[in-house]
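@channel anyone free to eyeball this complex?
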Amino acid sequence: MTVRNLFLLPGDGIGPEAMAEVRKIIAYMNAEMAGGFTTDEGLVGGSAYDTHGAAISDADMEKAMAADAVLFGAVGGPKWDDVPYEVRPEAGLLRLRKDMQLFANLRPAICYPALSDASSLKPELVEGLDILIVRELTGGVYFGEPKEIIDLGNGQKRGIDTQVYDTYEIERIAGVAFELARTRNNRVCSMEKRNVMKSGVLWNQVVTATHKAKYSDVALDHMLADAGGMQLVRAPKQFDVIVTDNLFGDMLSDVAAMLTGSLGMLPSASLSAPDATSGKRKALYEPVHGSAPDIAGKGIANPIAMIASFAMCLRYSFNLVKEADNLEKAIANVLDKGVRTGDIMADGARQVGTVEMGDAILAEFKALSA
Ligand code: IPM
Ligand code: MG
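replying in thread with the prediction:
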């Protein structure tokens, strides 16, 4: 039987509550569908800091590297606001991304029909929205060196981050965007700031050259990232795939997430290049939302983004396409039936907590898989 090794990193805040709902689905798939999942679990973020004094331990890092896929909850919270910068909760996530070389971050923003009223935009602008942001995840200003605060000696300090991209980094993320566009509506919009940034000029040149060399069948547009942000809230349905750098992708994906009604809805996948011999990609799946410390432990968090991240895991790491489709359909059906967590509550809907939402999705998944 196929063995599928999952490494779970629930993290902080609402991460563990959301992960508990995914565990139920894994248990069901193992019992009834020969899922073959083995799970091991580690600590990341503040919880890792409390235990190991690091945002992720070397031992857990090794397990993450060896797993077929990592499921990640969320990190951070006010409790760790004052820990040293090097071991702040986010450092665990950044180390996972960097060490596993997860350069391709896929952030789909899909507006479930039942939720078009929950968006801050008019329903007609978001109904049927289905865009994919492909964010470069291991380069740019989040990782570039120098990265420091220096004392200028005159009572002033200087904070420095370095935005840097090499040709190969832009080529490979553009390649992922074009390949994915071919499986969708065949359109890519690349966003940068070539009007003020040298890295933006290079980004634009390399995306254009990659398109010309290998992907001229895909329609390609370029937009300045600020204008892109404006277009995302003006007319989001004009986009199919958006490819952009680490910083702009971070911001634009939060914007896109909110178009769909709640940050609690959006999953993501972070993938490495395929291994030269095995062809397998290292992968980490995480909700786009954070640890939401204000509602942690109350049993009211929305587990949908976490469950939808597991659906992406089924699709991209294990090629379980039917199962992934069914899990996504289960989420849509539950929303259609008017079941809602507080963040997406609407008039006439039935408000439930984290566990009930997870149960409802599992019940629907079972029915669809029967
Ligand atoms: C995200 C988050 C992270 C990022 C933080 C938690 C480091 O905002 O995944 O979008 O900045 O990439
Ligand atoms: Mg972010």
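from a first look: Residues 90, 93-94, 250 surround 3-isopropylmalic acid (ligand 1) (CB under 6 Å).
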